[in-house]
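hey can u run this one w/ glutamine bound, need the structure tokens asap thx
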Amino acid sequence: KAMLARIDAVEERVNAYITVTPEEALKEAEAADRRIAQGDIDLLTGIPVGLKDIFVTKGIRTTCGSKILHNFVPPYDGTAVARLKERGAVILGKLNQDEFAMGSSSESSYFSTTRNPWNLEHIPGGSSGGSSAAIAAQEAVATLGTDTGGSIRQPASHCGCVGLKPTYGRVSRYGVIAYASSLDQVGPLTRDVKDAAIMLGAVAGYDPMDSTSVNTPVPDYLAGLESGVKGLKIGLPKEYFIQGLDPDVKKAMDSAIELYRSLGAEIREVSLPHTEYAVATYYLIATAEASSNLARYEGVRFGHRSEAARGLTEMFAKSRAEGFGSEVKRRIMLGTYALSSGYYDAYYLKAQKVRTLIMQDFLKAFEDVDVLLTPVAPTPAFKIGEKLADPLQMYLSDIFTIPVNLAGTCGMSIPAGLSAAGLPIGLQLIGRPFGEQSILNAAY
Ligand code: GLN
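ok here u go:
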């Protein structure tokens, strides 16, 4: 009830949610109370959480931030959502995001612009901007987001919360609306590291419904947290500490590095030589996969259907023309082009090869160090509208997060201080594949 009252009080200014579900939430909360009364207590029993609107939820409208799904009510819960519910979590509603998770500011949503609770003129980050703003504005205790190229870590960084992108395969993607299937991962946004460990533990693990989920045991992430960083080898990739890094971000990184050193960590410079190709590689692979994944929205089986169409072909075309926003259309066109015969070898295949080189950069660095420390984003949250006219500028803001998705490994964002203007700055810790425990420990 307190959480719903808080949502009522601040939502007009923050706009974190697309859909709030108070009736369902109160019912789930009463069920949680009954469970607790019977002594059936789990760490998540009764904990109010919010979900990015990319997670399909049984009986609750799921839009993925798009007009084309404005009326879509899924018949089932995805695995991550089902696991949270089984543990007794209470779902408060569905959070705003960039349309189909394409963006870095949440401005491409069809529904509304979410504002950064630290300064309402600024973006909350994206694409999971509703998920980060809800944490910062205390409109949920924890939220789930997805990260294809930074969409958990960057909004967490911009809103001063903790955000974790697990290793590809750690969390099931079943019931998560697909953007770029070889990059998408589910993860938590929380107020602190302990909460992130609890949430990750709840959703991680093998799922027969997702053939890319990996069947390795899920450690007790909470139990290991206090092992400290003495003797931990932390690598600083020199390609990430480039000229042009915002001075406030640089300062925050320097003081974090000093802190780790004073706690007994060993700091080393490392190199990830193919970093400069990451953004180009990502925008070929992500758009190619998106163009294929988004072919299913044609107005026939679900979602928006054009009223104006006469005939089948026109229905496909008009439903898509009316239903998708301009960023989504841009990506479908880019991806379709990259996959076209005659261009496939030059673009998509080449991008896959460079992706392997980027992956090898990380594996090589992890021969010398345990975790990597980098900024999450080159600047603190920019102003609403500032980068809308220039998609390339928007794409470049993901330069430090995208390589982790291409490599398939895990990374997290933790608060590392404020800029002179009072906006949060995030620090990224990157771990070995399935090394979530080590980055959680270092973060803690
Ligand atoms: N900003 C990146 C993009 O637009 C990453 C988005 C994401 O991780 N979903 O594709």
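The pocket of glutamine is lined by residues 101-104, 127, 147-151, 179, 286, 398 (CB under 6 Å). anyway lmk if its weird
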